[in-house]
Amino acid sequence: MKQWIGVAARLIVGLVDLAAGISKFPDPAGNVRQVRAFDLLPEAVVPAVGHALPTVEILIGALLVLGLLTRATAVVATLFFVAFIVGIAAAWARGMEINCGCFGSHGVPADPQRQYAIDIARDVALLICSVWLVAWPRTRLALDNVLFPHHERLADGEGSEEAVED
Amino acid sequence: MAKDPKKQSKTERAQALLREQQRRERMRNLLVVGAVVVAVAIIAGVMFAVQSNKDTTGKAVGAGGTPNNLTGDYNVVIGKSSAPTTIKVYEDLQCPICDDFEKAAGAQMQQAIADGKIKVDYHMVAFLDRASTTQYSSRALNAAMAVLSTAGTDAFLKFHTIAYDNQPAEGSAGVPDSTLIDWAVQAGADKTTVTPLINDNTYHQWVVNATDQMSKDGVNGTPTIYIDGKDQGTNWSVAAQNVLKAIGS
């Protein structure tokens, strides 16, 4: 059961990250402006972060969808969602009117307050999925199972019921 | 501890065998992890390089790539210097809300400029290239700058009005260069002078840098309107009303 919940968590976080990264990819200058809009990072690193964001999102998304290096990827995803939540909350708290830039840059939303709440709620949900995968990285339909086939037998001690289930 | 030495050595051998097998599996797993990590790192490096190369922001503008008749690096102030009120606008020619704002207050603003009541500090930007299939946003601004550069501020204002009156819908194919040239001529630019500037997208790098400057100015959307330095917020209709009030019309 846990392993199927893990599959769902992988697909939810993975597909959302893939969509976010792909929608950002065509407009690097826009991503840089979006990062700058949050006014949290020093200008010296803003362009690099803006250029790295879509790459990181696409790779996290792809690795999770494939179920490859699930735990390590989930750790990175967790850190990112914490950073996004902090960034959006900080913008909200300072009364800034910006778009989160989550799915590419589209200017300022009509109702920024409501948009902030929606963005944070979504990121919290994705954070929970990521934390689940950090805790229980072994899932069905994952490439990890092919690459590391003896993993479950070695870890007998902590996951015997899953081993039996197999 | 164990009473039977034979049995003990058997167990020990079995354990040693298991340990050896586990060690080999760990090594193999580490190698696989390492290989995957290296592969991911290479893909990441290539993707990052593609992103950085695509973004020409901040590159120096080449010779002849900066429009004439600007006031500052990335703005043009139009109006009598004695005008008591300054209105600063950040606008994108593809932005529909800018069009709403212009429909509500644009004509009155241009009249007030002529009457010496206000001066308007135009910061034109182009961040909506993705809203058309032909990068209309930046091409239109390039054309506007070609008009400003070769025909002056009055012609620029006329082009500005024509461009908003004929704004292509978001998600469309925009407007071809030939139409931009027609608009430029309508606004008062000389056809032979302005045609190569529009066809060659001469001011493109300036346009990219102007858009980056908006973000560095802390402006994150358009239209953003200031009246004597005071930000009028994100509601365009409130901003338009305040502008009309400031003009006194």
Structure write-up:
The complex is a heterodimer of chains A (166) and B (249). Chain A is mainly α. Chain A has one domain (2-165). Chain A has helices at residues 2-24, 28-37, 46-66, 70-93, 112-135, 143-147, 151-154, 160-165. Chain A is elongated, with a radius of gyration of 18 Å. The termini of chain A are close together. Chain B is an alpha+beta fold. Chain B has 2 domains: 1-54; 76-247, Glutaredoxin (3-Layer(aba) Sandwich), CATH 3.40.30.10. Helix content of chain B is 58%, strand content 10%. A 5-stranded mixed sheet of chain B has the order 1-3-2-4-5. In chain B, strand 2 (85-92), helix 2 and strand 3 (118-125) form a beta-alpha-beta unit. The chains are: A mainly alpha (166), B alpha+beta (249). The A-B interface holds A 25-33, 36-37, 39, 43, 47, 50-52, 54-56, 58-59, 63, 68-69, 96-99, 104-105, 107-108, 112, 147-148, 150-151, 154 and B 22, 25, 29, 32-33, 36-37, 40, 43-44, 47-48, 51-52, 54-58, 95, 97, 127-130, 208, 211-212, 214-216, 218, 220-222, 233-234.
Helical region count of chain B? 7
Question: Quick one: which chains have the greatest interface?
Answer: A-B, 39 and 37 residues
- Please give the largest β-sheet of chain B: 5 strands, mixed
β-strand percent of chain A reads: under 5%
Radius of gyration of chain A: 18 Å
List SSEs of chain A in N-to-C order.
Answer: HHHHHHHH
- Helix percent band of chain B: 55-70%
How do the SSEs of chain B run, as a string of H and E? HEEHEHHHHEEH
Q: Rough shape of chain A? A: elongated
Mean pLDDT of chain A: 87
Structural class of chain A: mainly alpha
**Main beta sheet of chain A:** none
Question: What key attributes describe this structure?
Answer:
A: about 170 residues, mainly alpha, 8 helices, disordered C terminus, B: about 250 residues, alpha+beta, Glutaredoxin, 2 domains, 7 helices, about 60% helix
